[in-house]
Structure formats: C-alpha cells, structure tokens
Specification:
Blueprint: H1 3-16, H2 18-30, H3 41-54, E1 59-61, E2 69-75, E3 78-88, E4 109-110, E5 113-115, H4 119-138, E6 144-152, H5 163-169, E7 177-180, E8 188-193, E9 195-204, E10 208-209, H6 219-230, H7 242-250, H8 252-259, H9 263-266, E11 271-279, E12 285-286, E13 289-298, H10 304-316, E14 321-329, E15 332-333, H11 339-352, E16 357-361, H12 367-372, E17 377-379, E18 393-395, H13 396-414
Parallel strand pairs: 3-6, 3-7, 7-17, 8-16
Antiparallel strand pairs: 1-2, 2-6, 4-5, 5-18, 8-15, 9-13, 9-14, 10-12, 11-13
Helix pairs in contact: 1-13, 2-4, 4-13, 11-13
The structure holds zinc ion.
C-alpha cells in the first residue's frame, strides 16, 4: 500500500467512526475530572478500557493513586522516528454551574456541538490523539518507528504528578518529537510558550499613627513608587531568534484575531502584571508593610534573569524594600522550521484548505516539559474561545478536522517525510 493509499485509509476510518468519536468524547466528559481536586480515576479508566479493547493495553503509572497516568506504545515494523502523543485527563473545575444552560458533566451532543466542562481543554484533544494512536497502530505492520500515547493527570496544577513525573522517571516517553492537542485554533501551530516569573516586593517600615507622618516612611507610598518604576519591565528590549520573529510577524494578524487586538505585540514582549497589592490596616494608621505580587511573562528568546536583574536593581534603590522570588519557568520553544510544522500545515491544507501559522502561545502547556528535556514539541488543537467558561463546547466539524490533521501529520512524521 502506498503512503497515499494509507492516508486515504486513515481518512476513511475517521469518516466511518465519526459517531464513535463523538460518543466516546461525550462519555469521557461524563467521567468528571475537575482539578482541583484532580481525581481522574473514572476518566482514566475510560481511556484504559478503550485502549485494551483496541488491543494496546496501557501501563498505568500513578505516583498519586487518584491521579493516574497512562502510557501505551506500539512499534512499527522497522526502525524509525519515535513520536509521542500527549494529552491531559484533568480539567478546570466548574465553579459556575448555575450559569450553564447544560449539565457541565452531561456530555450533551446538540446542534453540532458537544458540551461540558473540559470538553475543549482538552478532552477533545486527548480523544483525538487516542483515536489517532488507534488508527495508526492498525497500520503498524507497514509503519516505521514507534508511536507512544500518553494521557496525564495533574496538568491544570502544574504537572508534578503527571507529565513532569513521567518525564523524570520514565524516559521511554521522551521520543524524538512530541505532538500535543491543547486548544488554540486550527489556524495556528504552537511551537513555543512564554516563561513566567512570579516575585513579591515586600516593603517594611516601622509605621505609626497616621497623623505623625514625620515619624516613619509609608510602606504603601514606597510600594507605589516601586510599582511605577517596575513598569520598565514592559519596555525591556527583546532579543529573539530570527526564525521565531519572522514566524510571529507573518502570523501577526491571525494572533490579533484569535487573542484580541494587541496580542501580536504582547506575545513578543516582556509584560508585567501586579496582580496583588496588600498594605495598610486602617485609614488613620501609617502603613508599616506593603506587598506587591508581580507576574512577569518572558518572551521566547529571553530569560527570567533579564527581568529579575532589572527588578532587583529597582528594588535595591529603596532601602526598606526587598524582592522575593515566588517561582519561575523559563520560556521555551522548538524550531518553527521543524518537519512536524510542515506536516501539520500540509495535513490542515489537505483536510480543510487552511494553511496554519506557526506561533508561540500566551499560556502554558505540558509541551514545555518535553522541550525542557530537549524534545521538539508542537501543539495543534481546536478553537479555545470558550475554555473555562459556562457552556464550554467543542464544534464537532472543527474537531473532526483537527482529528484528521493530527492523524495525517503523525503518519507523515513516522514515515520520515521531511528532514529529521
Ligand atoms: Zn489544557
């Protein structure tokens, strides 16, 4: 069978199994897995049963019993590339059920949509990769290389017991390339993500009676001056890899369309958000403490240290202030010229006539953990507009297009098309 015939075969299977796909996704949504608390046992069991039935029983790796991870693998008939597919099982919690017009855990199929908490982020993506694994595994007698499917828990709270644990303890999930199906937009392929620095500025003075302002400097007024000076973070000059910058410039209009006007500029810059300001006790007391909690996003190509040095310098000018790092993640990215990007593009053009742009994402995903281990990682999924909102849904037609594109791209990659 030629590669072209194999592609046709894969597309035929997807068309024939549309109903199975939709029904399984609805069932998967009904296996509620909100995080917190992050108990994914029911939802994981649904995936494990599907894999067992397909003839590829998964291994369960559960450092926390209520947060199991699944790994299934299939070997082709000759050596080749190792592609890893990754999706998460846990979803955001549903704290606004009263604002929904559907049952958030009902998995209702209506008007060409499937509704439910987490259906878009990212149960639809995890199911897409699960079925892609199943169809490609059916071709394993003719396929080179190796395909591994991973479904993880604990993504929404950082991945410590999920992807991070797998990558640290089970190197067989590393692979040569990672394909993830987090939502974004089918018009974009995401090859990197911004970094995050969380830091607190703490100002302490003796404080005193509010009428005796000569007795102590005011912690809130010092903090206000520091807050104004910290705006310099937004203006830090950015050094960006030429290929990354070119990709983002080409995609500027699409980035603005997806994320609202201004996103194309913000994606390439450092940004500072002072998310919490806490100071003072009472209106007639002069405050002796004030705390600013800062959330800085680091553009691809830059480092946490650039922002941190600037912030340290500003804070050091104020004797009563100090800076405390709360946590950070460096930005990371893969080559936008990697063959997987071309495979996803070709597949999307074939399936829907749309040529997606390669961009970085504003939010974080487990793909960063593979990149941090040196594995090129790419994300392609459905539109994310209603993630974590009432009546979260996935559009079935759009989703089927994504299923097809992911399956064809994985097939092309395993067959060694394009440079390694
Ligand atoms: Zn997600």
């Amino acid at each position: 069978m030629s590669l072209r015939a194999e592609r046709e075969q894969l597309l035929n299977w997807i068309e024939q199994e549309r109903d199975e796909l939709a029904n399984f996704l609805a069932h998967f949504v009904r296996c509620a897995s909100p995080n917190p608390p992050g108990d994914t046992r029911d939802a994981t069991a649904a995936l494990a049963q599907w894999l067992a039935k397909a003839g590829f029983p998964a291994r369960t790796i559960a450092p926390r019993p209520e947060m199991p991870n699944l790994v299934a693998s299939c070997k082709g008939d000759r050596p080749g590339r190792h592609l890893v597919l990754n999706g998460h099982i846990d979803v955001f919690p549903c704290t606004d059920a009263d604002r929904w017009t559907r049952d958030p855990w009902g998995g209702q199929i209506a008007d060409g949509r499937i509704y439910g908490r987490g259906v878009c982020d990212m149960k639809n993506g995890t199911v897409a990769l699960l079925f892609a694994f199943g169809w490609l595994a059916k071709l394993k007698e003719r396929l080179p290389g190796r395909l591994t499917f991973t479904a993880v828990s604990d993504e929404e709270t950082g991945g410590t017991w999920g992807a991070k644990y797998l990558l640290d303890h089970h190197p067989e999930v590393l692979g040569d390339c990672l394909l993830n199906a987090e939502p974004g937009a089918p018009t974009t392929i995401r090859f990197g993500e911004k970094g995050i620095l969380r830091a607190a500025v703490i100002v302490e003075t003796s404080g005193c009676h509010g009428a005796y302002t000569h007795k102590s400097p005011s912690a809130t007024r010092i903090a206000a001056r520091i807050a104004a000076e910290l705006a310099a973070v937004d203006d830090l000059a950015v050094t960006m890899d030429a290929a990354v910058e070119q990709a983002l410039d080409e995609a500027a209009d699409e980035i603005d369309r997806i994320h609202a006007h201004g996103a194309a500029s913000v994606i390439k810059r450092f940004t500072l958000n002072i998310g919490v300001v806490r100071g003072g006790v009472k209106v007639n007391m002069l405050p002796g403490t004030c705390r600013l909690e800062c959330d800085v996003r680091i553009p691809v190509g830059e480092s946490v240290d650039r922002a941190l040095s600037l912030m340290r310098g500003i804070v050091a000018r104020h004797a009563q202030a100090r800076l405390e790092v709360m946590g950070f993640t460096e930005p990371n990215w893969s080559d936008p010229g990697h063959p997987m990007v071309e495979h996803l593009r070709d597949a999307s053009v074939r399936v829907s006539g749309v040529r997606p742009f390669a961009i970085t994402s504003l939010g974080a995903s487990d793909a960063r953990l593979w990149r941090a281990k040196g594995v090129p990682a790419f994300t392609y999924g459905t539109t994310a507009t209603n993630v974590a909102m009432p009546d979260e849904y996935t559009d079935v037609e759009e989703w089927i297009g994504v299923v097809k594109a992911l399956t064809l791209a994985a097939h092309a990659y395993l067959n060694g098309e394009g440079a390694a």
